[in-house]
Design brief:
Structural class: alpha/beta
Low-confidence stretches: none
Radius of gyration: 35 Å
Helix content: 25-40%
Number of strands: 14
Number of helices: 17
Largest sheet: 8 strands, parallel, barrel
Shape: elongated
Strand content: 15-25%
Length: 566
Amino acid sequence: MKPSYQKYIPFQQISLPDRQWPNRVIDKAPIWCSVDLRDGNQALVDPMNLQEKLEFFHALVDMGFKEIEVGFPSASETEYEICRELIEGGHIPDDVTIQVLVQAREHLIRKTFEAIRGAKNVIVHFYNSTSTLQRKVVFKKEMPGIIDIAVQGAKLIRELTEGFEGDTRIRYEYSPESFSGTEPDNAVAICAAVMEALGSTPSNPVILNLPDTVQMCTPNTYADQIEYFIRHLPNRESAIISVHPHNDRGTGVAAAELALLAGAERVEGTLFGNGERTGNLDIVTVGLNMFTQGVDPRLDFSDLPKLRALYERCTKMHVGERQPYAGDLVFTAFSGSHQDAINKGTQYMKESGTEYWEIPYLPIDPADVGRQYEPIIRINSQSGKGGAAFVMQTAFGYTLPKAMHPEFGALVKGACDAAGTELSPQQIFELFRKEYIEVDGPYQLLSQKYIDESADDGSTTKGRFVGTVKNNGFDPVDVHARGNGPIDAFFNALHQVGVDGYHFEDYSEHAISIGSDAKAVAYIRLTTPEGRTVFGVGISHNIYYASIRGVLCAINRAERARQAAE
């Protein structure tokens, strides 16, 4: 018995040794056509009702779509009524063209023309299946019979257009459905016959839509099919080449992009890839892929969260957490090395003043699609030393010195391991507060005063510290000492209560609020008597006292660690 995989017939490649599409780039947006209200809607467990369709239609218009497929009005009374409401209710702007889908069958075509009366701009999109497999198992017809179905449909559509009352501008679209499964020469032949029947001209071109209805091959082969078709199509200047890729192989976006390289001028798809089976190509992804390459997609994606909320509400579908650009986690880094690179990229952009977006691991600025910076870095047990520091800076305004990142990062990592889950920014801040701010022993500063005795010309920096220090279990001690600045004076004062062996290593400070209530935070790095590095944090309206409190915090943390070890 053959292995299961051997029951599948490999896709037949076409010969195109001088293909040109690999050398091209996408440098402009295609004509976009949304098929959310038809192709997307038919794939829903619970199709959209009238109000949902109207809301979705207006959202598509607001995004900038100029061509929107609104339904299959001959398929059901519901679809017919929605088309009529769009027209009679005045929902369609003058610069937007609605598209209606219909099979190449006479009674359906006539019903479709009834549905579009009164519209200003309409694309009548007709189709019939042409693939080798459909001809073999569904229609049991040879190619001439399939071509005749399309041509008869085209002739009737042209006839009804010429006799149509009113000033409606009617354009034509024809799809050889399952184009990707149709022999290339047969696809050319049927489209050429349809063009002739419609009387297509350069001034009135037909849209030839070449669907990747069921993906059967890699995207490069689909691009070969498109390029082959365009090369061999007679009267090419009288056609607009459109593509409609599905996503059966998970490559709908890639198929659309390579098809554009191959010469396609128009793309049909849906928001977030909704559609039959694995869906259509995702227009959001294709458009924003262009955006990241400096190409204007000519669609507005500036409020993606709002668009996603509309989509999920109307379709009852869910946008996955890893969906490109729109998912909850796509602008989030858990990996320590990723967090570090994002942090450094953010700093580089601030310091360099570059006009370009240059942050590793983030191909697009989250703000450009209505997302925020806060969730870029999320902290779990896989996070590195810089991730927690990034959260402290972006969410709370604390710029921890780089040397402090390993110490605080280890504390956060330990908390993540203990919790067994990620920590929220607020939880990280509470850990920082508990570890560095709410440290009240064993030494306590009951009173403090620093008198600056520096020279007026700044030639010397001197001062005097006066205060009261209490060590748990002992009576308070009044201390006073001079030194070269507040930190040195405080160290000298601590010597009077037996605190020795600590060495000052580094200091940094910054404001954490502005205006009359401005406070300063000081970060102090000391070396303990055992040679270990320890950090302390002090906060005060007075920068002198902030640094003094930072020194005491570091000493208290070191003393606590020593006591715990004993």
